[in-house]
Fold this protein.
Amino acid sequence: MDGDRSEEHHHHDIEIEGGHSFERKISGILDDGSVGFRQPLLARNRKNTTSQIAIVGANSCPIESLDYEIFENDFFKQDWRSRKKIEILQYTFLKWALAFLIGLATGVVGFLNNLAVENIAGFKLLLTGNLMLKEKYFQAFFAFAGCNLILATAAASLCAYIAPAAAGSGIPEVKAYLNGIDAYSILAPSTLFVKIFGSIFGVAAGFVVGKEGPMVHTGACIANLLGQGGSRKYRLTWKWLRFFKNDRDRRDLITCGAAAGVAAAFRAPVGGVLFALEEAASWWRNSLLWRTFFTTAVVAVVLRSLIELCRSGRCGLFGKGGLIMFDVNSGTVLYSTPDLLAVVFLGVVGGVLGSLYNYLVDKVLRTYSLINERGPRFKIMLVMAVSVLSSCCAFGLPWLTQCTPCPIGIGEGKCPSVGRSSIYKSFQCPPNHYNDLSSLLLNTNDDAIRNLFTSRTENEFHISTLAIFFVAVYFLGIITYGIAIPSGLFIPVILAGASYGRLVGRLLGPLSQLDVGLFSLLGAASFLGGTMRMTVSLCVILLELTNNLLMLPLVMLVLLISKTVADCFNKGVYDQIVTMKGLPYMEDHAEPYMRNLVAKDVVSGSLISFSRVEKVGVIWQALKMTRHNGFPVIDEPPFTEDYELCGIALRSHLLVLLQGKRFSKQRTTYGSQILRSCKARDFGKAGLGKGLKIEDLDLSDEEMEMYVDLHPITNTSPYTVLETLSLAKAAILFRQLGLRHLCVVPKTPGRPPIVGILTRHDFMPEHVLGLYPHIDPLK
């Protein structure tokens, strides 16, 4: 993940050949020949060597930061002053209209996703079942494994060749985006396309993966597509939607999209809102709560309407399954002290197993990254190998279990069942017998969970069956996550947790008043808490899934215990993956060692600044030779009495200003003319890959010698901190305000007006501890 140090924010020591005016500027001699600062603005020879490359999906790519701060330059102020009431109403209406469209689109995609999975997987399982009934066992295996291999190869090919960013869950990338980290194609239309179809093929291929994590990423991609007004590359553009040309508004839309994804995956609208609040979003406010709740409500209504259409049988094999609703209402919720002890035990075991799961997932991901970086063909070969292994386990393990006589009074035709999904699958058994392990392995993941959660009968699954299934799902889930297909972690974790929860319920037997189906739910909750470390959102999602509010106290207890136990060993799985992928995520707390440092201790490199009225050639040279995205603008004589910090100018704004060629031959201020000739929307952020680049500029030698007034595009009210401010306070300020640049100013007068600029990479442990290796990271 380590790449060349070419980060857009940080200010390195830069050697420029042929750029004399630029060199003079750095050394402190002004363009008119007068002597300015007699030393570089930042007299340090430090470099920030933290990696600017991160793994997004299954590919390495450069990363940048997002501008969540309101950039208060003259164009912004003029735009807000000139807005009429009707335009303000239009802006408010569009925010709610987009929230509605996000909910509508995510709900439809979630339904079609389930419809496709149920029908494709149903066809495969019916084909396999029919061949098994005819005792054509080898043909059945090759049909089963062949279908899985074809589907897996299709999913892997989409990910490897079209959108590598679509691989994996997508939740870590969405979480990082909402924290202020941007990476190319993380929310692109191609990523959306592959996420949808890759998830359908991957889940239908029988992998131990879920479609819930990919649905969160899908919702975020839909929100981004709508928020930027479509895609010019794919000729899908809507001018009336191009209103949100800034990262701040897009962040809010993508938060709504992530919440809608959870609501569509689990049919849990309130759980979706809480998931966005607890796990995904880094910034929250009441108005955003209203809009996310509205979005998830739209999802719930859309799903309910579409499911009603399918009750008549017009949706093929899509029936009660698919959009998972594990109704365990029939279980009686009565518990005593021994039951509470069993729940505590489940929580402790879930915490230990969950932390071990996270540890193993981390090791497997690091191993797979070495394979994936060798190229698309290796990614596909890895997927095919895991597919064959999964098929062998699903088809081979049921042969290890004995056939069980059908329960008395179950009804003719229900045991053994002939349909694609049932709790009583015959597999290789004689008449009136069923194979309980095949009912779990040769089924869709949703139906397997429904079978584990069932409360109809106590003993349909043997203790040995539950133990074998738990071990198989636990390790298959670990080796499957990280291959180049869209894959969620929710379903593998719920499967493993439900199996060992039901196993504990069977072992307790008459000692417990709780039903084994309820033990399955508590086992799933404990494992989810141990891996993902969420509490409130998981609790509500599970209760919405199972439609059983009476379980609330026990689910809360088991989640709290499992999270507390697991936190003693490592971080949550999504936090761990964010770190492993190299995404510079800003936590909501400062590290302890930061209290021993101040802001000036970590600013790095030589600072490159511009005068308020700067020569075009100087700006062009700076943009060409660096990848910085923020430049301090200094007011200096004769425009002011002394050197003062005017503010910060963004790279994107400088490029637009240079392309407009509104230059002056004289070194004078003429910002009012620029304000009259340009509009704020000219400086709005373009969609993915549409922004101007330095290569797009065509400037003559004569224009290079002219001047441009930077004041109209300069944020004249940047956030600044004293150089003596505690680094811990600076980190909390940076994160809570959603900043990209934080100016460090001197404490004493008579010095250059700015000491340096802090970006998120300056707060990363590898940078700080690299500068001060003697510091104890725990103190």
